[in-house]
Write a structure and sequence with these properties.
single chain, 375 residues, 8-stranded mixed sheet, 7-stranded mixed sheet, 15 strands, elongated
Length: 375
């Protein structure tokens, strides 16, 4: 088994760890903004294909002392790059973390690149070029205090970019955060779901993908590991075929999305079609004041209203939060409602006591996922 490291959004480490365990990962250890785990090559491929809450899967290849640019250059040259890279291959280097002497990510990445291409020039007279958008090999260097961890990036582009979302509204949730929220709310596909402020549809679409057991990686063009020298095409094709055949044909329970703007619902419908969910989700234009339960059976309501940081000003949103609280209380008896908000002041306008508060980050914004049990 090999050692792997999944990068995740801050605050979602425990959620991602649970998901990795379900995928078959061994020795799963949550860390800050990531989860370390072990597994075989099939698990590496399966995690990229199926994981809903992580950004990237890294494969550490070297850990070394890293106190200065000179030491970094020397340690990178100690790697035999012929094992990973031909001079006609392109590369890219991402750097995270830092220390007193290596505190500028672009400068640090340049040292790594220089060490690699200088070795290539010495060995063959040729060198790889840099392609930051679509490289043959993407590397990640993480510096923590005086230690460097060099990894191969098996994902390529971030896994939150599923590939189904060409249309985005204002301040959309990342797909990974939406998937994590669904897990944190304990929603299951057997429960009716509605997002009354769905925007471009990220929450309903992620719920639909889970409910129909559709692997989110099916919408991507390529993963980083597909260009590696040890790429096992037969293994990968088998996992893709397995994912295709495991999809369900119908939702166990209805999934609804609402928004007041026609153009926003149009975006959501485009995204639903791209994700293979056309005809499965009910996405409609509706004023919040007209919101009613879409089914007689109670379910879960989740919404991400604006909170005055990126969309709308806080004082102008008080009525929106008050209306949400009134609708919850008057029309959704028996349901469980959740609001994701970055404003404590606005959350008080809901007028209901939250039974649970879960701290999460929406990008760099500290937020709270509030649960309301409606009787």
């Amino acid at each position: 088994m090999k050692q792997y490291f999944a990068t995740v959004a801050r605050g979602l480490e425990a959620v991602a760890a649970q998901e990795l365990e379900k995928l078959g990962a061994q020795d799963v250890q949550p860390e800050f903004a990531g989860v370390s785990f072990k597994g075989d090559q099939a698990l590496l491929y399966r995690t990229n294909l199926w994981a809903r809450t992580i950004f990237r899967v890294l494969v550490p290849i070297r850990t070394f002392p890293c106190r200065s640019a000179k030491q970094l250059y020397k340690e990178i040259q100690n790697v035999n790059w012929e094992e990973y890279l031909d001079p006609n291959d392109t590369l890219a280097v991402d750097c995270t973390g830092g220390n007193e002497n290596l505190n500028h990510s672009h400068y640090t990445a340049l040292q790594v690149k220089n060490a690699i291409v200088d070795q290539q020039r010495y060995d063959s007279g040729e060198r790889s070029s840099v392609d930051v958008e679509n490289p043959d090999l993407r590397l990640n260097l993480h510096i923590r205090e005086d230690k460097g961890i060099l990894s191969l990036d098996s994902s390529g582009d971030s896994l939150h970019r599923r590939g189904y979302r060409p249309a985005m509204g204002l301040a959309p949730l990342k797909e990974t955060l939406a998937a994590a929220i669904l897990q944190m709310t304990e929603w299951t596909p057997q429960m009716p779901f509605i997002d009354p402020l769905c925007g471009s549809g990220t929450l309903p679409i992620e719920a639909g993908l889970q409910a129909l057991n559709i692997a989110p990686g099916l919408f991507r063009g390529e993963f980083g590991f597909e260009r590696w020298r040890d790429f096992d095409e037969d293994l990968w094709e088998g996992l893709l075929a397995e994912a295709e055949t495991s999809q369900l044909s119908s939702l166990p329970a209805p999934i609804h999305g609402r928004d007041r703007a026609d153009e926003i619902i149009t975006q959501a419908l485009v995204n639903a079609e791209k994700s293979g969910l056309e005809g499965h989700l009910t996405l409609m234009r509706s004023e919040l004041a007209d919101l009613e339960p879409p089914t007689t059976e109670p379910g879960i309501l989740i919404c991400n209203p604006p909170y005055g940081i990126r969309v709308g000003e806080e004082e102008e949103l008080r009525e929106l939060y008050q209306l949400l609280g009134d609708i919850f209380k008057q029309r959704f008896s028996g349901w469980t409602a959740y609001i994701l908000t970055g404003s404590k002041k606005l959350s008080k306008c809901v007028g209901l006591r939250a039974s649970k508060r879960i701290q999460v980050y929406n990008g760099s914004i500290p937020c709270t996922l509030l649960r309301y049990d409606l009787y």
